[in-house]
Every structure is written in C-alpha cells, then in structure tokens.
Amino acid sequence: MTFVLRMALRELRSSWRRLTFFFLCVALGVGGIVALRSLIQNVRVALTAEARTLSAGDVYVRTDQPLASDTRAAIEARVSELPGVERTETVDMTTMVRLLDDDNIRTKVVELRGVQPEFPFYGRFDLGEGQPYSFDLLRDHGALVGPELLTQLRLSVGDQIVIGDIEFTIRDVILTEPGRQLGGFSFGPRVLVSYDAVEETGLLTFASRANRQLLLRVPDETQVEPLVDQLRDDLASTFVRVGSYRRTENRIERNLGRAENYLSLVGFVVVILGGIGVWSVTRVFVQQRLKSVAILRCLGATTGRVLAVYVVQVTFLGLGGSLLGIGVAQLALWVVPDSLADQAAAATGLSAISTSPTGSAVAQGLAVGVLVSLLFALVPLLEIRHAKPLLLLRQGMSVPRAGVDWVRIGVLASVGAALVLVASWQAASLEIGLYVVGGFTLVSVTLYIIGRVLVLVIQPLQTTAWFPLRHAVLNLSRPGNQTRVILMAVGLGSFFIIGVQSLQTNLLSNFALELRDDAPDMFLIDVQKDQVDGVRSVLEKWVDPVPRLIPVLRARVTGVEGREVKFGDIQSARRAGLGREYTITYRSKLAENERVIDGQFWDDRPSEIPEVSIEENLQKEKGLQVGDLVRFDVLGRPIEARVTSVRAVDWDDSRSGGFMFLFRPGPFDDAPHSYVAFLQGPSDIEVRARLQRDIVAAYTNVSVIDGLDVIRTLRRVLDYVAMAISVVGGIALFSGGLILVGSVAMTKFQRLYESAIFKTLGANRRLLTTMLVLEYGVLGVLAGTVGSLGALILTWVLTRQVFEIAWFASPGTHVAGVVVTALVVGVVGVGSSIDALRRKPMMTLRAE
Amino acid sequence: MIELHGVSKTVMSGGAALTILHPLDLSVPSGQFLSIVGPSGSGKSTLLGLLAGLDTPSTGRVVIDGVDITVLDEDRLAQLRSRSIGFVFQFFHLIPSLSAFENILVPLEIAGVKKAPARAKALLADVGLTDRGHHYPSQLSGGEQQRVAIARALANDPPILLADEPTGNLDSKNGRLVVELLREVNASRGMTVVMVTHDAELADQSEVVLSMRDGQTDVITHVKPPRAAEA
Asked: How far apart are CA A186 and CA A58, in angstroms?
C-alpha cells in the first residue's frame, strides 16, 4: 500500500501540469452541481422558515364559488369544536382598473384582492413608503397597489383609480405581501382593497371568476392537521379545497426538490462532458506512461498494484478537481446575490436567501466529481495491462492484443451501469437516470457516426497533389490520433449551442405564425347576457368585422355512466382526470376550426334530452365515448347530457376559441351565464386603448385582456429558458474547447517529433504552419458539421415529433455555428502547437 | 542456478512461422558471469527475455533455482523478478518522472523492504552518485543513468542480474566502467550475471561466452575457469 500511495503521489507531482485539463473538466461540472443545488437548497431553507407567511394562515378553505350556506354551516360546526380559532376571508379576482380622468384613456388588467381586518394571521406587508401596514390604509376605499401599476398607468401615491363602480385612493405601494401563491401566472399587478369594498364594486354579483378563501388561525398547532382531515371529510361532496400551510410547504418542498434534481442533471451533463475530457486526457497519458509501467512490472510490481497506482492518482485528481469546482461554485454564488438571489427573494416574497454552498451540495459535488473521474478514467487505464515488460527489450514493438478483451467489455458495461446510477441519484429517479444516460449515449453515438462518415468523405483528399493538404488529411486518419475524441467533444459542444439557437428560432417562428394576420389578439371576458347588444354596438365603432359573442358557462363533471368510464362522485372525477373546471358553450353549428370525427352532430331542432359533443382528447385520453351519459354541475345546477359526437378542434386557429364540451342549445337558456369574444383589436395602440376604455367605462365588470401583453410575457419566459439552455450549451462548448486544448497539448510530443523530422527533411516554417492551419481547420469544420447535423436532427425531432409544430431549417444559425466552431478549433489547435514550429529540430531529436 | 530445457521461440511473421530461437539446452550455475554475443537478430535478447520470464517460450522449460517459471502466471513472475532478478538495459529505462534516488527506491518499496531510503542511499553511494540522488534521469549523463540503473537492479540483492547490451548506449570509457561494476558485483556478491552484448572485447571479461547466430548456439567458450575452481 505504501508503494501504491507513494508512487501515486510521485506520479502526480510530475504530471499534474499535463493533467491540468483533467482538473478543469471535473471542476466545471462539479461547480455547476454545487452552485445550482446550493441555490435551491437555500431557497428551500428560507421557504420552510417562512412557510406560514406563504399561506398567511394555518388552514385555508378555497372555492371559486360563493360559499353555500350549508357549506359554511358545516365549516362552522367543525371549527367551533376547537377553542380560540380565528377566521378571516379574502376574495381574489382578475378585473380592470381605469382612471377617473376622462381624458386619460389608459386601462389595466389587475389582480384584485379584498381582505378583512384580521388579515394576515402570519407574515407582514412591506410598503413602499416604509410605514407599517394597517387595515386602516384600506378603509374608506383605500387601495395598496403593486409598483408596476403606478409606472404602467403613470400614477403616484394619492391618485385615484376606478374599479367597477367605485373610486379608490392609492395609499401606498406593496413591495412584499404575505399569502401570495408562488409561481402562479399573473395577469397584472396586485391591487389590495378591503373585502367589503370588493362587494361594493358590484363585480361579485355577476357570475364572474372570483376565488374566495377562508383562512383560519388554530392556536393549538397539533390540531391543524386533524382539522384539515375532518374538514376534507365534511366537504368531500363540494368543490371547496381544504389545506394547511404545512401542506403548501410540502408541495413547495416537492416542487423545489424536483427543480433541484433537474437542475443538478444540468450540472451532471457538464460533469459527463468533463468525463469525456478525463477519458481523452487519461488515454494519452496512459500511452505516454506505458514504458514506465513496463519498467515497474520489470521491477516486480504486479498489474494490480500498477493499476492501483494510477487509480489512486485519478482519485486524487478527481478530488482536487472537485475541490476546485466547489471554489468555482462559491465564486459563482458570490457573484449571484445582487441579481438572482434578490430577484428570487422578491418573487417568493422572502426577506433574504443565503448564497453560501450548502453542506449536502458540497458533499454531492465531491462524490460526483470523484466518481465520474474514476469511471471515465477506468477504461483507458485498463490499457496498462497491455504494457508488457518485454517492451523494454524490443524498442518500437507494438503492444500485442488478444482477440476479445472481455475485461474491457465488462468494465465498460459496469461503468455504463454506474453512470446510470449516479445520474439516477442526481435526478432522484432511476427512470430519468436511464433517460439521461441513454440520451447522452444516443447523441454521442450519432455524433460519432457522423464524425466517422465525414472522415471517410474527406479521404479522397489524401491523394491530393498539394502537400500540406495531403498531410493535414492524413494526420486526421492516422492511427492513435485524437480526431474522434475531438470531433465528439467539440461536436457535442457545438451541437448544444447550435441546437438551442435553432430551436429558439423555430419556437419564435412558430409563435410568429400563431400571430398570423387573422389571429385574435384581444379577449373580452365576463360580458353579461344583458350587455351583449351594448358591447356589440361599442365594438362596431372600432373593429370590423364585429366578432361573435360566445356564451360560456363554467361546469364540472360529477359523474359518468359510460362504456369504459363509470363513476358518480367528485373524488372519482378527480381521479379520472376530469376534476377541473371546464368552460363550456352551446351552439347549433360547428365552428370553422372543428370537424366531427365520431357520432353525429345535432341539427337546429331542439332536443328532448341535453346533448354534448366532446373534444377528441376526452375520447382518446379519458375514455369518454359516444353514447355515454355525463353528469355536470353547472353553477350548482346538475345537468345530465348524452355524448352524441366527438370533434377534432384545430387549436392553432383560435378565432372561435376551443371547447372541450360543446352543448346542444336548449338547457342553458335560462341559466346565468356570461359571454366572451375573441377579436382582432385595432393595430394602433392609441385606438386600442380607447376601445378598452370605452368598454370598461360602459360595462365595468367586463375585462379586456390584451393578448399582446400576454404574448410579450410568454416571449420573456421563452427568452429566459433559451438563455438558460444557451448557458449550458456555452459551458458544454467551453468543455469541448478544454478537451481540445488538452488533446492537442497531450499529443504535443508526437507533434514536436514529427515537425523536427519534417524540418530535417527540408520543410520550412511556412509549410508547417499551413499544414497545421489546414489540419485544425478541417477538424474544426468537421466538428462544426457534426454539431450542426446533430442539431438539425434534434430540432426536427423536437419540433415535429414532440411539440408537433412546423420545422424551419434556420440555415444562418447552422452556417454561423460551423464557421465559429472551425475558427475556435483552428485558433486553439494552431496556438497550442506553436512550440512545435519554433523549436530547433536537433533538440527534439536528441531528446527522443 | 538457471536451467533451460529445449527452450525455443517461434513467432508468426507475415502469416508464416519464423523460428527466432531454436531449441536450446543451457545451464548457468549460480555465481557465473555469462556473456551472450552475436550479431543483430541472432536471438540474444529473445533468450534474455525468456530467462527473465518476460516472454513465454514456444517449447521447453526455464527453471530458476528449481522453479519452472514457464508455468507461473504474470503476478507470480512479477514476484519472482522482484525477489530474484535484477535488470540492466541498453536504454537504461529509468522512470523519467522520478529522481535517481526514487528510481532506486521503487523496487525496494515494491518488495516492501523496511528502511528502504537508507538502503537506496547506500546503493547510490556504491555506484558513486551520492550527490546526484535528487537529479532526474534527463539531468544525468548516459553513464550516470546506467549506474543508477545498476544500483536499482541491485536494490533487493537478487541472486541473478540480467543485462541487455548495458554498454550499447555508452562511450567506451563509460562502457568499461559499467562492465567493471558488473564484474565487481559478480565477484563480491556471488551474483549470477548474464550479459547480452555484441562487443567481443567486453564479453571476454566474463567467465563464459555464448555465441549465437540465426537463433542457434554457435559456440560456447570458457574464458576463465569457473569461480568454484578459483575458490
């Protein structure tokens, strides 16, 4: 053991400079894992500490309909069993804000929340003026608003806004607020008013979308979970949702845990790229060490002990690389706080998020770094077995090989399995581990095959009359070279970057397609029955053609009696994947974007029993069939309808909207329902604003949602995603560059020797430079082409097969990708070989 | 005592079998200084490789101190080399990443010798390189490198020393010094020395000279009477 340890340390001392790339490759990936994991773990810690703030109470009861009196009675009965429980209610809705000033035509969709004096039970508000929050700020039609409302409507504290029929005075700005749900999509800025004031606006009297919440504070914490369970039992037959802050916390924990594992996979992918670097560096290193190994064996060291020397060395290197990676992570986390951590803290409503690496992230980074180093180094290290001491007696003798190397195959299989395990550990799922390693293998094999084919394609150039080109091409296919490794590593990097770029182009092109000339970009919701004619006449002034106002109701499935699906209560509906609230409509004809694919669509005559037509996915995925009886709860009223047809809906064409359930006219004639309209608003921004203002001023409950705003938000999200992936691609390319520099540096001795021989044979520096430029230029073009072709396949598969959208070739991105890759490889390759050009040949030859 | 019984070596070359060493019987008594001479390609190095168990004979057996080494596996052979055989090569074959001192230390550590540094220091002194211990092979002259290689070969005090053209890469002065060193260890330590060389003059320094040509023994000359008679 002493021999192994001492020898490993001595080897390390002499070769660490040459193995710097080994170091860096590991450090990069480990840095990624540690930084990402730490960041999310810190968010988790912060969230756990402030979990109650997120719910603002111990127990919540939520519903999107006014609480029925019997439901309320059931809750009261249960809650009154416990002493000292406090209650408060909130109401949330999406609505419009306009200004009092008739000349000011600006309007804005906002998220309105009404609260009672007891709110919040936990957590606190941070207000812009620095004053503490008190309910008094909301009395007498006071409002607290999100800062973006002020900038968007050019208002300041003290100004007045109109919601529904009521004028409110802005008393302050909300910076952070308790009880805000995490990660929810928001239509607009927050406006906080008193609960009673929301009722006064008149907006609640319509069948509009208001979410109500009853919050409870339970003095005895041990009673929280039992109370939630009891309330859930009591209210099983209603649509209310009951939960506790602890369950919110658990859900957030689960989501964050998942996010942490997915992000760590990103780090893991970089570690694997580093692993490829490790493999390539080790391969060349072992080749250079074969003689030393033969000497050691001649001196009596067994194969096992020599192998142990290098395994220990690799472990040290992996450990060193991982430690460096942790340093990198710490550095990255130090750089982060101002931007990301503050944003994350603000978005989650937390006061602060720590930015130091966590113990568990550090431990995982270390373990993954060392494991991946060992796994990737093991196969090239096996070459050591072939270093026969006989080599020392016969200079230049090649290492004889037996036919099939079962040990190597066995080790390869074990390394593959171990990588799956490490990936599964990182993703906390065996399935995902298999997918990641499988995907990586698939990509690598594809890139490898493309590389092989390309090397074959340029083979005819080996007979070209131009000396430098002939030798450049010959160099790419001589035995024992690094062509395949470089093609794969750099190809992988450029594959990531080009792939992400062209995928982004594809997604944006499709987005542009969706916004085709006739696509609606403005949506009217919550138009009441008696407002239909009025709204239509306002619209006539501004748009042509005037869109149809579509009647909509909200319904839930409460039972199905069908051939494949049968159930009769709300819980079973949830289990069957039909538990959500559906927006339904009725009409006598098919829309332009619909066609019947099963059953028979109704005619104009009224029917005896209600009939419903379902969208094809309900048939395919939920198993509903023509002839099935479906029971609905439509605003508290039960309705049973028979499925008479199945429709295919072209969702890309959204002019008529798309409905999962379409009813035959008749049953809802008397039911309270509202109307929506999809229209193409005026292109002029000023005119657009006037239209919105006219409608909101005349019909205060109607919300006009500007699709352009929504699309802008989506684009921003898309940009963030693209940027995140590009960063990963950039790191991958950087790893590819490192591997390239590493491979070139490792083969430097061979190159020095070759250049010396060429020089003695009369080649001048210019000729040698031309050869180098050509060799690395060709290699770069090949690597770029490998990445580009891979990216082409990736985008095609993703767009056509996964997203099912149109595919664009985006030739510009690909050409640029190939050129940049060729340049990088050329510069790095020639730059690392400059020494070979400068050295005097005699020095080199004598050293050999 | 090294014994060869019908040892031969045949290799495949271009699809045809090529015998590079014809069946050979040979016995080298303990303490003998044997030289193997012959032109390039005569089978000298092949014979040396077979003696050391670095190569497997196509036929026959190699027996060292009563142990048939042709049936030993690689690990056993390694142990045998560690204990019983020292090597000196034409190209020195020092490990370039280790200092002269460390190169001598390695076989001692492999054998698990206690107080290895002290022994390595003594060996350095024996070959007259006390001051050069911390130098790397690239910083030493050819003659110095070969002396380090000899010290390394002697580290575990093996009963057998095999030398493959030990002077082939040295000038005549250094060459003579090296052979003198070999003669000295043969005489003072009673070590069996088998030296391959193509220099007849150097070979004459040994007790017995085995001449080889085209893979066959040509002639065996006794230059000096066996040491046993001397004693």
From this structure: 24
Q: Does residue A263 form part of some domain? A: yes
Spatial CB neighbours of B183, under 8 Å, sequence gap ≥ 6: B33, B205, B206
Nearest alpha-carbon partner for A573 in A648, A624, A511: A624
In a domain, residue B113? The reply is: yes
Contacts of A304 in chain B (CB under 8 A): 75
A23: Cα separation from own chain's centroid: 29
> How does strand A107-115 pair with strand A190-194?
parallel
The domain in which residue A558 lies consists of: 544-679
Task: Write the DSSP assignment of A785-798 as a string of letters.
Answer: HHHHHHHHHHHHII
Report pLDDT for B230. Answer: 41
Same domain membership, residue A233 and residue A263: no
pLDDT of residue A669: 77
Q: Which of residues 70-99 of B touch A (CB under 8 A)?
A: 74-75, 78-83, 87, 89, 91, 93-98
Separation CA A551–CA A583 (nearest Å): 10
Residue A671 CA from chain centroid, whole number? 42
Residues in A closer than 8 angstroms to B89, CB to CB, are 392-393
Find the CATH number of the domain harbouring B199.
3.40.50.300
* Spatial CA neighbour of A295 closest among B182, B86, B9: B86
Nearest-angstrom CA–CA distance, A598 and A628: 13
| Total tally of structural domains belonging to chain A | 4
* A226 in a structural domain: yes
The pTM assigned to this predicted structure is 0.67
Q: What pLDDT, in 10s, does the model give residues A63-93?
A: 887 888 888 899 999 888 888 899 999 999 8
The mean pLDDT of A816-839, rounded to a whole number, is: 82
Please tell me the distance from the alpha carbon of residue A781 to that of residue A784, in angstroms, as a whole number. Answer: 5
Range of the domain at B140: 32-43+80-230
